[in-house]
What does this fold into?
Amino acid sequence: MKKKTKFDRYLEEQLKDPDFAERFRKAGEAWDVALQIAALREDSGLSQTELAKRVGTFQQQISRLESPGYEGHSLRMLRRVAEVLGASVKVKICRQKSPKKRAVAEGGLLRRLLSRHSPCRRP
It folds into this structure.
């Protein structure tokens, strides 16, 4: 097993704080989006300026989308960028805690079907 670094131990300690842990999780989500866009763009051999022209926006907007600190992504813009890059956007919203139990009449067939095909379910 790999030995923990000072940073690993520090991060573990910081993650015990719920506020820090939530900010860290959200930063990771933004980082993932930024890295995916940049990687797809580079794999396509496009500069930010070239991608911006094809999407119908400005280079600065592509730069923002590729910035790990940016959280203003719109689904519409992500779809436009993905389409130009030959990709698609998939969004998954996962429940953090188990929902309150509902009466049988409140269950609904649609809810049961959706829960079977949830991208958040663990096998």
In short: The two ends are 27 Å apart (CA to CA). Helices lie at 6-14, 18-43, 48-55, 59-65, 75-84, 104-107, 109-116.
